[in-house]
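thought: user wants a sequence for this fold. calling inverse folding tool.
action: design(structure=
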C-alpha cells in the first residue's frame, strides 16, 4: 500500500480563485511535483486544529509585514500591501515551526517572517531590488548568490560556492538584527542577506528569492522542495 503524500501547508492571503491563479499556482505546482500534498492556510483558519495535521510548511511570498511587529515606524514599508491578519497568522506559524521542529521553507517575505517571528528586525526598503515592489511585473532580476559552504542550504541546493537566483524584493533581513538562534547562510554580492537557517532544527530554511518560479531558474532550486518533502518523512 502506497504511503500518503506529506501534507505541506502553504500560506495564503485570501480564498479567491484570482489570488490562487496569480500568486499561488506556482507553489501548488512545486509542492505537487516534489511529491507533497498542497494544503492552503488562510488567515481565518483554526491553526490549533490545522497544524497537527501538517508534515511541512511553506511561508510564501507576498506583501510587507506591518512595522509594528518588529518595533519600528514606517521607514519604507508599502502599507497598501500590509495585511495584519496574515502577519499574525504567519508569525504564529513560524514560531510553532521553530519550536516544534516542523520542516519549514520561507520564501521571500517568508524569510523575513522567520526573522521577525523570532525577535529579529527588517530593512524596510532597498532601492533597485525590485522593478515594482510586491509584484512580478517586469522581467526578473537575476543575480549571483554566495552560499556558505557546509551549511544546510549548500547541501540542500548541492552548490559550491553559489548559484543564480531571481529577485523581486524591496525589503530584507538585516544581518545586524538577526533573530537569536538563526544563522545567515547566503548573501548577494552587495551583502544583502539571501538565505538563513536554524542550526539544530531539521529544516528551518529561508531564502530571499522565489525558487517556486521554476521557469526562471536553474534546476538546483527544485531541490529546496524535494528536500523539504524528504525532511517531512522523519518529522
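)
observation: tool returned 235 residues.
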Amino acid at each position: 500500500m502506497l504511503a500518503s503524500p506529506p501534507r505541506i501547508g502553504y500560506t495564503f492571503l485570501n480564498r479567491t480563485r484570482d489570488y490562487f491563479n496569480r500568486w499561488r499556482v506556482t507553489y501548488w505546482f512545486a509542492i505537487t511535483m516534489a511529491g507533497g500534498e498542497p494544503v492552503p492556510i488562510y488567515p481565518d483558519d483554526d491553526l490549533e486544529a490545522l497544524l497537527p495535521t501538517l508534515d511541512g510548511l511553506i511561508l510564501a511570498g507576498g506583501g510587507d509585514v506591518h512595522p509594528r511587529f518588529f518595533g519600528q515606524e514606517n521607514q519604507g514599508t508599502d502599507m497598501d500591501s500590509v495585511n495584519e491578519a496574515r502577519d499574525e497568522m504567519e508569525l504564529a506559524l513560524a514560531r510553532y515551526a521553530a519550536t516544534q521542529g516542523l520542516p519549514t521553507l520561507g520564501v521571500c517575505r517568508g524569510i523575513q517572517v522567520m526573522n521577525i517571528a523570532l525577535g529579529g528586525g527588517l530593512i524596510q526598503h532597498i532601492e533597485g531590488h525590485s522593478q515594482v515592489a510586491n509584484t512580478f511585473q517586469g522581467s526578473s532580476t537575476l543575480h549571483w548568490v554566495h552560499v556558505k559552504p557546509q551549511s544546510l542550504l549548500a547541501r540542500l541546493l548541492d552548490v559550491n560556492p553559489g548559484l543564480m537566483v531571481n529577485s523581486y524584493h524591496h525589503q530584507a533581513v538585516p544581518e545586524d538584527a538577526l533573530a537569536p538562534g538563526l544563522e545567515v547562510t547566503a548573501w548577494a554580492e552587495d551583502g544583502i542577506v539571501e538565505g538563513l537557517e536554524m542550526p539544530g532544527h531539521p529544516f528551518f530554511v529561508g531564502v530571499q528569492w522565489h525558487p517556486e518560479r521554476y521557469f526562471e531558474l536553474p534546476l538546483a532550486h527544485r531541490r529546496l522542495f524535494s528536500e523539504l518533502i524528504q525532511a517531512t518523512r522523519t518529522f
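thought: summarizing for user.
answer: Here is the designed sequence. The chain has one domain: 7-232.
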